Amino acid sequence: MLYGGDYNPEQWPRDVWKHDMRLLREASINEVTLNVFSWAALQPDEHTYDFSRLDDIVALVSEYGMNIIMATSTGALPAWMSLKYPDAERVDFDGRKHRHGARQNACPNSPTYRHYAAELASRLAERYGSLSNLEAWHISNEYEGICYCPNCARTYRDWLRARYGSVEHLNAVWGTDFWGHTYDSFDHIYPPDRAGDGSYDGPCAVLPAASLDYARFFDDSIIDAYNVEKKAIRRFDAQTPVTTNFMGNFYQYDYQHWAKDIDIAAWDCYPRLGTPASDTAFWHDLIRCLKRKPFLLMEQTPSRMNWMPYNALKRPGQMRQQSWQAIAHGADSVQFFQMRRSRYGCEKFHGAVIDADGTNKTRTFQEVAALGRELAEVGPLIEGSMPKARVAIIFDWSSWRGLRNAIGPSNDLDYLREARAMYAELYRRNIAVDVVGVGADFSAYDLVLAPALYIVSDADAARLNDYVRQGGTLVLTVMSALSDEHDVLHQGFTPAPFHETAGVWAMETDALAPDHTVPLHFADSSDQTDCAVQDASTEQTDYAARVLCDILVSEEGTQVLATYGEGPFYAGKPAITGHRSGEGVCYYAGAFLNGPAMREFLGIVLAEAGIPTVNTNAGVSINTRYTADGEALTFIINDTDEPRTVTMPRSGTDLLAAGTPATLKAGATAQLPPFGVMLLR
């Protein structure tokens, strides 16, 4: 199992390198990521390349028996390129042309950038592609940002021509009759920036379809730039996996759209102090499902994180807990940024394995070393194993973007928050979840949840309707299936593509004032016992709707699970319904639910789907990965900074126990210390 992370030799005198390698090996580090931001050093001018320093650090890392992930170093432009070829730099949303500085500063549609990036990647692959300890190629670094420059404008028009064929078709799809926006030529179309249709505040535009298409276009632009480098690498190295490192909470790029182009999924995980463990797990599951195989935890901090209002330390044991959480959800690596703390620059207060003292005496180093010993012992058993989920949550970038673009119905509407709220209840119940795109194969799942699936094409709606008719259980919510793939409202009884399947019609939707809720009354609170999981105590009067409330008209044969309580004029109207369609059932939550209501509702849904809850005390999570031979590896993790009593969900041997591991029987209890971890084989 890879254990390591970013090492930046350019920041250190050469006499420090060997000292650092000795310390890293002492910490059981077996991999380093090199060359992330070295373009200026590798290519001091457009005609000169100098790999001498990189050769030396590669030789030293190899001498110490460590593997290498080699970055292409194209995440930041060298100054000579910015100055001589200004087309390589971006133009921002406000129309400002950028000069040399920052990072991810290149326009992906710049021919200059693509030429030199491909040339550098090619030379790197020719030089290092045959290394026996090369584990992967890491293209660029943490892609981010949008460009609105003339290069992008021209390429965008070509993209639109290919997508729509004629400007008349584009006008019809975009609805350009609105506010007289009709185009007579593709050449009249510009990116939706501040000077044009984005003037109301980014990312919102007068024509939401234009904003949605520009986001899709820029996805393709970044992926194309990535593939320019990948193709250059493949000229000299046909086998080593090629990837890049994604980030969470990042609507600008659709990671699901990247899945076919990366060989292995990788992401950088930086939860803030106090971030719910379920929020982090949500992204682990989403990244794992990109390739449906183990992923790389490419970066995390071993101690404190930069870029926050305050750089809080990870508490004792918390780095280990977060690392094992990633592994429990499918990671086959634990990697850090950074191996040694920077002496200068804006990240000099970011945590590192080796701190400024340069010793092995810090708490952080000792925790890293202890985790390294654990991974060296049990990593080979875990590698390649995978979770198995009967439940899927649909997370859709078009819906995320479309709801961000929308003016109304509520500024409190947050697609990511609602998806994570539904996921959090499943996490609380220790139910394995796949987080998938709307184009996934749903036949493998007993239950599919689609919170606020705002944008859905007729074809994808038909697939979900077929899934229900063939015996699946589907959950829809308020703001589901309002618009098609162009963000044009579906016509008919909302949710029009699912009207017959859902057996309900949302006649109107009320937006609640901030912090205002509407009581909900469930017809049957049979799940109250199950709701006591993790010490949750819920009374019927605590159930509430928040943010948005559909005023529902239920069709004949539709079961009303909950109604709105006193207060609004629609008190007594249906709020949550269930409807059988073919062999399956479709549930519709006409409001976003508070925690108690979510527990009650999903308890009903899970019981219908035959999916059991695994009871634990608050803050304890249980996940299982299965080897190719069917062996179960069960991770029991205390996500809190307080001790917890746990009940063994199955019999097994705790591979992380000190001394000679004892067999623990199913139903037996044990104590987990703060941030404690058990691994049952």
TrEMBL record:
Zn(2+) binds at residues 107, 147, 149, 152. The keyword Zinc applies. It comes from the Bacteria. GO terms for cellular component: beta-galactosidase complex. It catalyses: Hydrolysis of terminal non-reducing beta-D-galactose residues in beta-D-galactosides. The active site is at residues 142, 299. One of its GO terms (biological process) is carbohydrate metabolic process. Substrate binds at residues 103, 141, 307. GO terms for molecular function: beta-galactosidase activity; metal ion binding. Its EC number is 3.2.1.23. Residues 389-611 form the Beta-galactosidase trimerisation domain. Residues 6-377 form the Glycoside hydrolase family 42 N-terminal domain. It holds the Pfam family Glyco_hydro_42. Transmembrane segments: none annotated. It is an enzyme of class 3 (hydrolase). The keyword Transmembrane does not apply. CDD domains: A4_beta-galactosidase_middle_domain. InterPro entries: Beta_galactosidase_Trimer (IPR013738), Class_I_gatase-like (IPR029062), GH (IPR017853), Glyco_hydro_42 (IPR003476), Glyco_hydro_42_N (IPR013529), Glyco_hydro_b (IPR013780). Keywords: Glycosidase, Hydrolase, Metal-binding, Zinc. PANTHER family: BETA-GALACTOSIDASE GANA. Belongs to the glycosyl hydrolase 42 family. This is Beta-galactosidase.
